[in-house]
Each structure stands twice: as C-alpha cells, then as structure tokens.
Amino acid sequence: MKENYCLQAALVCLGMLCHSQAFATERRSHLRPSFHGHHEKGKEGQVLQRSKRGWVWNQFFVIEEYTGPDPVLVGRLHSDIDSGDGNIKYILSGEGAGTIFVIDDKSGNIHATKTLDREERAQYTLMAQAVDRDTNRPLEPPSEFIVKVQDINDNPPEFLHETYHANVPERSNVGTSVIQVTASDADDPTYGNSAKLVYSILEGQPYFSVEAQTGIIRTALPNMDREAKEEYHVVIQAKDMGGHMGGLSGTTKVTITLTDVNDNPPKFPQSVYQMSVSEAAVPGEEVGRVKAKDPDIGENGLVTYNIVDGDGMELFEITTDYETQEGVVKLKKPVDFETKRAYSLKVEAANVHIDPKFISNGPFKDTVTVKIAVEDADEPPMFLAPSYIHEVQENAAAGTVVGRVHAKDPDAANSPIRYSIDRHTDLDRFFTINPEDGFIKTTKPLDREETAWLNISVLAAEIHNRHQEAKVPVAIRVLDVNDNAPKFAAPYEGFICESDQTKPLSNQPIVTISADDKDDTANGPRFIFSLPPEIIHNPNFTVRDNRDNTAGVYARRGGFSRQKQDLYLLPIVISDGGFPPMSSTNTLTIKVCGCDVNGALLSCNAEAYILNAGLSTGALIAILACIVILLVIVVLFVTLRRQKKEPLIVFEEEDVRENIITYDDEGGGEEDTEAFDIATLQNPDGINGFIPRKDIKPEYQYMPRPGLRPAPNSVDVDDFINTRIQEADNDPTAPPYDSIQIYGYEGRGSVAGSLSSLESATTDSDLDYDYLQNWGPRFKKLADLYGSKDTFDDDS
C-alpha cells in the first residue's frame, strides 16, 4: 500500500460567512480520502490501493479595506505528513507573494500585510508547496489556489457627467420624457446591495420627476409656459444599498430648458397709429412703421403685415422688415394735399407658421388702424398737358405765333407762373416764348426742307420761388410750302447716232428723264415735262410726257453729223403739282456719236474724221515720243551747264600783274602769336553775318561826335593824336577803305617756299629762281622777273 501525502488547509475567517465556508471546506476534506488511505479487495482477489488526500481546496477569502492593527489571517496550509516536528517547510509563490501575502513556513498560516481594494484588484492567484526543511525536497506537488478580495460598500455612485442639459417643448403633456441620467458604482454588483442604485429627485419638484430604477426624468406638471419660465434646474440623486439607510449616494445637476412653440398670437400694443406724409413725397418713400408683439421666438414669432381695408389701399402699401419684425408703410402713388388731406388704413399682423396643436389658442393675428395725414408742400407748377404738339408753316415771318403752353401752381397760394425755353433744346434760337402767357413765336423763317420737326422744352417756374420748376416737351411741325421747283433727278446726258437723211427714225427715246422735288409730296408730283414755248417747235428734238413723273426725249429727224455739230443743248421745263405750281428749266446735253450697224456707240469725238484723213495713230505716237526725248536732252544739257563751276580768278598771262598784292611786311604766320593779334584784323560786321563790299566808298557820311575834339590851343598833344586816331578808326567814310585779306594759316611743306620779294629786294641775297621755269605758264612772269642775273644781262 502506497501512501501519498497531501496538504490540509484550514481557512480562518473573520466573518461568520467565512467561518461557515471554511467549516464546510474542512468538512468536505475530511470526507474525502486522505493521503494515508485504506486497502480494499477487488474482484478476483485483487488488492486495490486508493490514495488519500487530506484536503481539497481552491480558494480563500479576505475582506477589503481592513484597517486593523494586525495582519489579516487569510488561511492556513497543513499537510497530513506534518507531524509538528518542524521538518516540513511551507513555501508560497505567485501574485503578491512576499509583498502582500506572507506565509509562516512552520505553521502554514497565510497573512495579508496590506489593505486590499477590490476595485483595484478582485483576486490573486498563488502557489503553495510543502518541502523538506533540510533538503528543500518537494514533499508534495505544488497546489494552486485563489485569494478573492471580498467587497464592502466603500464606493459611492458616480454620474457620467457632472451636469446635464436637456430641452423639452413648452406645454408638453405630463410624463413626457426629458432625459435619462445614469450613475455607476464601483462596488461588486454580484455581492450584496453595494452596487444596487436607486434614483430620486432632490430639486425640481413639482415640475419634474425621475424614475427610481432607470433615471429617466419626466415632466410632472401640464402646460408649462416658456414665456413664464424658460429654464429649470433639477438635482438628481443616485443611492446604493437599494436606497436603504447607510447607503452611499451621488448627485448631478440637470438644466432643463423649455423650447418655444407657437402658442401666442401677435398683438398690437395700441389700437391706432398716427402718421403723416408730405404731398411732395415720391412713391416708395417710407411713411411710418407699426409693430405687433409676439412673445414667441424664432420662426414661431415671425409676423407678416397686410393692408386689409381702408380708403388708402390704392395709395399706400406695407412691407415686412424681418430683421425688426416691423410693418413698413410706404407711399405707393403720389398724394395731393389739395385733393385729399387724410387717409385711413386697416393693417393686419399674422403669424407665418401656425402649430395645429395650438390652433384652439387662435386666431393668431391682430388688426390695427393706421391714420395718415397729408401735409401741404410747395409743389412745382403743373402743365395742363404732359406734352404739346404745334404746327407752323415754313417761311413764316418772324414773330408768327406757333402755339401756347399753360401751367398752373397746384398749391393753394396759386403763385404766378413764368415761362422760358430751355436753350439747350433750342440752340439756334428759332423760337421765343412770352414769359407771362406762354405763347411761343418764331424768331426767323423756318425751312421744312432743312428740319421738318423741331423739339424744344418749355420751363415753368413760380415767380416767388424759382426752384420750383416744371418742364414739358413741345414738338413743332414745320408745314410744307411749295417753295422749291423740281429739278432733274440726276445729271442726264443723251447720245444719238449720226446717220443719213434717208434712214428712218427710231421710236426709242434718246434718254428717259425724271424729276425730284424737295417739297412734300403734296407740293411735288405729279411732274409735267415740256419744251420752253420759244422752242416748242424744235426741229431736232421733242419731249413726250409719260404721265408717270417721267418723260422721254426723241429725235425729230435723222442725218445728224459730228462734222456739222457734235453737241446739242436742249432746255426742258419741269413743273410740279403744288399750288401755286413751281417750275424750272433744266438743260439736257445730247451728243452726236459714231455707231456701228447695230447702233452701238463707238466714238463721240468730233475729230474722228480728221484723224482718219491725216496721220495714223502710230505715227502720231512716234512723233510725240521724239519730241519728248529732245526735250529731255535739252533739259539735261541745261542742268549740266548750270552745275559746272567756273574758276574764281581767271589767270591770263597779260593780266597776272594786276592781281599781285604787295605787302610791306610779311606776317609771322599761324605760329607767330606774339608779333600781331589777328583778332584786330577781323571785321566786326562779318562776325554778325554782314560783310560789306570791298573797296566801295560808303554812301553815308560820318558825323564826328561832339566833345571828342580838343581845343586848338591845347598843349596836350598826346590827347589830340589819340582823338584823331579814334575818329579815323570809327569813321567808315574815311579812306583807305577796308580791303583786308585775312589769312588764318599760310601752310607748310611747300616746295616753292615763300613767294615774298620784300626780303630779296632789300638784301644782296644770291637766291636762285631758275626753278620757276619749271612751274608752268602761270609762273612765267615770275620766272622772267626773278630769273638769273646771267639771263638778265644777256637780254640787256
């Protein structure tokens, strides 16, 4: 028989329930086989061995939030093999072992060293084992057990929100659900009543109630009126332990707002409104405002206004200002103080949106009387007609009456009116108006053919108030007078073919003519065409009136010849149908032309036969071309001759001496800047653009200025000489006359050197001038004059 050892555990609890459970557990363990066991005989004499366990357990209990001075005894582990001699050692491992839970390794007692909170952790899983104290050899397999933290009511209920907001329509029925509030309890709902909550209302009666089990808030009173009180504050309590004494509780605040419904009709605060409007007001101008008060808000408070009755319905209108919820009375048509001075309107205000549930509270509208007084105003004059149309004949003499306009002051004062013409509409000043009676007259004759209609504007203003002014259009029609004679409608020209006398005349007209008349149709057609009486029997041509404002011109004979006469001028008289009739004589040009056998025009020039008898056309063209070429040659020759330049000095051998200019002193040239100031040789008149002719005596005489000549007996000779020099310098009539030749630059590098003979004439220089013989015929005289002495001696 084999023996098995097991652990026996005893649970020591502080509560009665714990003791009873431990007792039952221990009892059950003893009822079960222990590790020591007993032997039984089986069938066929076989001996069966059954191991005995001293105790079967799986959980301990410990109460939470224990605050005693000593650690709490959770339970005791004991093995059947423990004889009490201390050789067995109990070991505890797992969650919280060594920190929260400790075990006495000799006795097997387990204690909780810390206060436990079920809401933080509800249970702990531990492992227990019995080992040999000396060798640490396991005497039993490890056994797992659970320590459960037993709940106590240590957590009050908590709502999900600290405050709640809810809305419910006003005038809701009793029991209407408003909102549901929910609280939670952290305690164990499976153990006792610690988490069993009951709701109640602390504030908010008698308007609202709350369901104890669900937390649903409902209305408790009927016909709650938003206009009386809009917002309610309700306090709800949640209590655990089923609401019994000793339970914990939590509260929350609920703000309940009554939403608006259309349960109030609009109402005018007064029965009559007084308004006024000036008769000078224009349509659309505001007269006044009315307002019906509706305590409802939003769309339930919208009000629309209408005029339902009154003697001013045609003259006034009302619109709704939805921003201010006012009815705006406006002028629809102009009013006249002199016609009617007061009007009455009946205005209705009605809700736009009506709730059928509250239709019994209606009607949702109200009416009010609006009285409007018309105020007198200084109005501008009024013309009796909106426009005027007058007529006047053209060419009427200046001062002819065209017509009259009439205006009056509509005010009771009936001020006098003064008339005038707006000159912007009568720039040519064709008309004038009498400022007192409004008669319009012409200032000059009018021409219908220039302007058939004239439009002007007449102004009427009060004499005492020129700012009150009215304007009326006046259209003046200029009536036609037969003052224009008819004329050819176009510049007509006829052509007739030359032919012999034996050829029959054609029945076709040479040309068909018509007329035009600037006058009106009443003074124009029908036109009558005829020849003047003096040539009514014209042997060449005749005119036939077609009686449709046209006429045809026909030839009376044949045999027209261009050599005899190539052009005929036929006068034609045109008369109109006016009264008295007007007529004019128009000249028709008829040319005689050459035609082919079919009558088509070939040429209308009278020189055609002459050209055929003379040269041909090609010959004439050749002659003309030759003439043109000759003329071009002559023009070119003359042009070239004019452009040819002639020399300024003609060098003739016999006249060379006459052009030689002898200088007593040769200047130093351009490089000599100290010997002589060249500026003194410049003519001041030449600087100004005027150069006098050389060697010509001036035509005017110089008059010495008084005061420059010194006295004869003056001993100051120097002053006398300076005065004479100044007179000579400033006297243009005194010889020698200016003929100065200015040379700005003599030149360099000339192979001839200096041409001056001044130096050679005064010195015994042995210069050789034989090279002058090589300079050409122009220097022959110089070569002869300044040749070598040998040559001179030979000649002598």
TrEMBL record:
Keywords: Calcium, Cell adhesion, Cell membrane, Cleavage on pair of basic residues, Glycoprotein, Membrane, Metal-binding, Repeat, Signal, Transmembrane, Transmembrane helix. Residues 79-159, 160-268, 269-383, 384-488, 488-609 form the Cadherin domain. The chain crosses the membrane at residues 619-640. Its main location: membrane. It comes from the Eukaryota. Pfam families: CADH_Y-type_LIR, Cadherin. It is found in: Cell membrane. GO terms for molecular function: beta-catenin binding; cadherin binding; calcium ion binding. GO terms for biological process: adherens junction organization; calcium-dependent cell-cell adhesion via plasma membrane cell adhesion molecules; cell migration; cell morphogenesis; cell-cell adhesion mediated by cadherin; cell-cell junction assembly; focal adhesion assembly; homophilic cell adhesion via plasma membrane adhesion molecules. GO terms for cellular component: adherens junction; catenin complex. SMART domains: CA (SM00112). Residues 1-22 form the signal peptide. It is a single-pass type I membrane protein. PANTHER family: CADHERIN-11 (PTHR24027:SF85), CADHERIN-23 (PTHR24027). Cadherins are calcium-dependent cell adhesion proteins. This is Cadherin 11. It comes from Prolemur simus. The lineage of its organism: Eukaryota, Metazoa, Chordata, Craniata, Vertebrata.
